[in-house]
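Example for tutorial group B:
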């Protein structure tokens, strides 16, 4: 049963710019890969077990959606879940849950290619932009489906109960659209060619997982992906190990640069964050990396970071999900920096709260801001508008002088596992009330 969303808040005592955090943090499994992996359970004749699954709200919501479709979801242990196809199915996605999570749209591809129909409400999620779904509607039509726009949702179905493979050119590189049609192609009749695909590491990871279960997928991680329909093999008994969350990794890397004497980030994959590591190093941050570890340290307390101009961009460019945490970094960098958000309109709205805390930010237009630094921040009462700005407010509160309150921590819990334990362990004074 879905828990009612608790209105909790974090209270954080700031370090007034001192760099005293110390220790290590273990990165959890990636939210944005485990959600499509969970959705792919609809493609299986049997099921599979996933490990290193982050215990976050979005995973619980996706589990609830799957249960209501007819997939058995069982938590075997902490961070270990198994998924098993059931006997009867419901092809209507739960409205309340879908409205809370944009990633519910990932279910449409597997459901259409498995059951030949799906009803889903216009998906909700963060307030970072209007979140259109034209790429999905146009793609399913190309694969032979009909789309009926009902009250505030869509009924999509195919007369023959199957999708036909098709050639689809995405007008925009879309992370979840690429994943959705990659999964749809696995059970579609014939070959599906996807062009102008997104190239995030989560997409490659999803494709690799499905290929180990017999899917015929080529080109994941490049802009053209080819899928030959034909289904998945049974009884492959291969466990899926969730890849590390590169956005959580980047968030802790930025926090470490701003507030740690030395921070060891474990169980991560530095290769997924090259652009972030390069930019921070060029700004003057001391970072060393090894296979599954990143170490950031501030030996020289007088160290200043040079301002940088950043533009968010599809992978492998600067990730939009690290735009807000990085803006906090820029408020502490020397001189003038700019942040140009090219993916989502509305994803810079949080900056007015930073100005309230003492940052000097000039809004050029809804996509571009100029930040002058370094500026001392003062603790304030804040409300997290979305998952990533919520984490950015945590970082800002930690470097600020005085106490901050961050409301609406449900958003932060959507994307970060045990965040207050991880922060307390390295020396942050944070309480959840
Ligand atoms: C994924 O969202 C992530 N979510 C987002 O992370 C991330 O911010 C985003 O990719 C960009 O990296 C998951 O993977 C579950 P898009 P997605 O489709 O796929 C436009 C987080 O905090 N677009 O790549 O929904 C869209 O408006 C979340 O973890 C259309 O125009 O993003 C945006 O401008 C937030 N029509 C652009 O494409 C469509 O049909 C890229 O969005 C679909 C998208």
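The residue assignment follows.
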């Amino acid at each position: 049963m879905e828990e009612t969303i608790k209105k909790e808040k974090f209270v954080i005592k700031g370090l007034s710019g001192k760099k005293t955090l110390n220790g290590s943090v273990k990165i959890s499994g990636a939210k944005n890969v485990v959600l499509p992996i969970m959705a792919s359970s609809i493609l299986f004749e049997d099921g599979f077990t996933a490990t290193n699954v982050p215990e976050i709200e979005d995973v619980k919501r996706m589990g609830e959606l799957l249960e209501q479709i007819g997939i058995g979801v069982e938590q075997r242990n902490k961070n270990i879940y198994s998924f098993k196809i059931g006997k009867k199915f419901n092809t209507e996605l739960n409205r309340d849950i879908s409205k809370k999570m944009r990633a519910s749209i990932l279910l449409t591809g597997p459901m259409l290619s498995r059951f030949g129909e799906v009803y889903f409400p216009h998906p909700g999620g963060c307030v970072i932009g209007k979140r259109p779904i034209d790429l999905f509607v146009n793609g399913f039509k190309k694969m032979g489906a009909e789309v009926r726009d009902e009250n505030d949702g869509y009924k999509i179905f195919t007369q023959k109960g199957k999708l036909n493979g098709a050639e689809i050119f995405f007008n925009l590189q879309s992370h979840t659209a690429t994943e959705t049609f990659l999964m749809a192609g696995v059970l579609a009749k014939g070959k599906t060619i996807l062009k102008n695909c997104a190239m995030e590491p989560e997409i490659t990871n999803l494709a690799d997982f499905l290929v180990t279960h017999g899917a015929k997928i080529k080109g994941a991680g490049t802009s053209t992906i080819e899928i030959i329909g034909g289904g998945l093999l049974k009884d492959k008994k291969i466990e899926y190990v969730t890849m590390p969350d590169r956005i959580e990794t980047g968030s802790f890397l930025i926090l470490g640069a701003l507030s740690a004497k030395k921070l060891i980030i474990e169980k991560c994959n530095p290769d997924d964050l090259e652009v972030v590591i390069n930019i921070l190093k060029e700004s003057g941050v001391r970072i060393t990396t090894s296979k599954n570890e990143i170490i950031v340290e501030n030996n020289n307390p007088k160290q200043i970071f040079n301002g940088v101009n950043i533009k968010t961009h599809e992978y492998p460019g600067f990730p939009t999900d690290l735009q807000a945490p990085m803006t906090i970094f820029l408020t502490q960098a020397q001189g003038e920096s700019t942040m140009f958000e090219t993916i989502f309109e509305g994803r810079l709205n949080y900056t007015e709260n930073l100005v309230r805390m003492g940052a000097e930010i000039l809004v050029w237009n809804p996509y571009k801001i100029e930040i002058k630094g370094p500026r001392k921040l003062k603790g304030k009462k804040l409300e997290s508008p979305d998952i990533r700005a919520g984490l950015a407010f945590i970082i800002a509160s930690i470097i600020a002088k005085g106490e901050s309150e961050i409301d609406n921590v449900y958003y932060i819990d959507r994307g970060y596992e045990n965040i207050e334990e991880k922060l307390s362990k390295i020396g942050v004074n944070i309480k959840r009330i």
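DSSP finds 14 helices and 23 strands in the chain. Compare this with the pattern of hydrophobic and polar residues in the output above.
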